[in-house]
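Build the 3D complex.
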Amino acid sequence: MTGAGYSLVPFFVLLWILTLTSPCVFMQSCVLLCSFQGGSDVVVHWILTGDLHVHSYYHNQDQLGNQDQTFRGRTSLFKEQISGGNASLQLTGVRVQDQHRYRCHTSTERGSRNSYVSLKVDAPVRKIHIEQVGNRITCSSEGIYPKPELTWSMDPPSSSKNTTTVHQTEQQLYNISSSLILSDPVPDVIYSCRISTRTNTRRTTLRNTASLTAWSSETSVPCSASNTSLTDFSLIWRFNHSQTILIQTRTHVPGTVSEDWRKHVRSVSESGSLVLQGLSSDQEGTYTCELSNNQETYVSNTVLIIEKGRGTGVILGAVVGVVVVVLVVAVAAPVLYFTRRTTQTGAGPVVSFILCSK
Ligand SMILES: *[C@@H]1O[C@H](CO)[C@@H](O)[C@H](O)[C@H]1NC(C)=O
Ligand SMILES: *[C@@H]1O[C@H](CO)[C@@H](O)[C@H](O)[C@H]1NC(C)=O
Ligand SMILES: *[C@@H]1O[C@H](CO)[C@@H](O)[C@H](O)[C@H]1NC(C)=O
Ligand SMILES: *[C@@H]1O[C@H](CO)[C@@H](O)[C@H](O)[C@H]1NC(C)=O
Ligand SMILES: *[C@@H]1O[C@H](CO)[C@@H](O)[C@H](O)[C@H]1NC(C)=O
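Done.
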């Protein structure tokens, strides 16, 4: 009896000290593990420090009379597994406020035990938004937990003034935003913003390429965001930062062209270039190519200038000009020649001079 007691003590001490950690994702469901020997007439209490009742079970059914209201409708046990020794608790719609150390108390006719589980909430970095207005580039992301970190880098490297602000939302998640002030905006610098938290890191890069001039009604705008293989990325083309031209995902190739752009988009090349047709000055503006996978996003802006209209205008003007000159000369020359000839002799060379100067 004493011997059995001795060998049991370290075992129970170990169970008391041992606290499992349960990583949960914000707004998803999560299982807090708890196991015991099993048996009949099982009593299960999930309790927080301060005696807050999370979930209870006895007389073969849930007993939610004392349940704290913050857990209402969000807890359940795996009923058919309880007699077999599984008292794990499923919690749905996990919030940051659910981060606690939970006690699982079980008892049967064979005895009782307590075990502890720490619930840890993570809200990974999802989308990073990057945009440039004037000489200010802003990078931001929302709904992150725990507190994220943000770093800028540039290729070629240089340093600029940057300010980062972090706000905590009502749900205790973090919104982060950082602005980089460019002292000397030059094309083809790659600005990269990296945001990381405990579970993940995402990076977004922005690149402004030199402007592109289209000389005909057709042109191809390269997606110079990256030289990475397109197969791993989804692709979005935008116009003037607002209109969506095309969306292409890894599984959905060649993608969907928006209604307004059907007549202008001929195709998308394998490297992501946008092949445009039927261009007029209405299609002049900024074309943005955005490539993203679940870790990185590459954004590149290209300003397209369309010279087609102006080009033919200039040529037409020149042709009309030449014709007018020729006509004037053709009419004026004989008249001039004739008049000069009648008034003075040797006027031929003078007329030739006028002709040349025209
Ligand atoms: C209890 O059941 C849940 C749900 O089926 C399962 O995820 C968990 O691994 C089980 N726990 C044990 C200790 O068997
Ligand atoms: C951002 O600002 C910090 C100090 O405020 C500076 O150490 C860092 O180099 C800056 N980053 C860039 C990319 O300029
Ligand atoms: C955080 O971002 C969300 C989504 O953009 C916004 O609705 C909310 O107002 C922001 N909260 C704070 C405190 O900045
Ligand atoms: C493009 O490729 C070069 C060399 O192959 C590499 O050094 C560079 O990092 C790549 N750029 C991007 C944006 O992936
Ligand atoms: C697109 O942006 C350019 C430059 O800001 C502007 O001149 C043009 O009018 C815009 N086009 C449309 C259709 O909004």
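The pocket of 2-acetamido-2-deoxy-beta-D-glucopyranose (ligand 1) is lined by residues 31, 33, 35, 78, 81, 86, 88 (CB under 6 Å).
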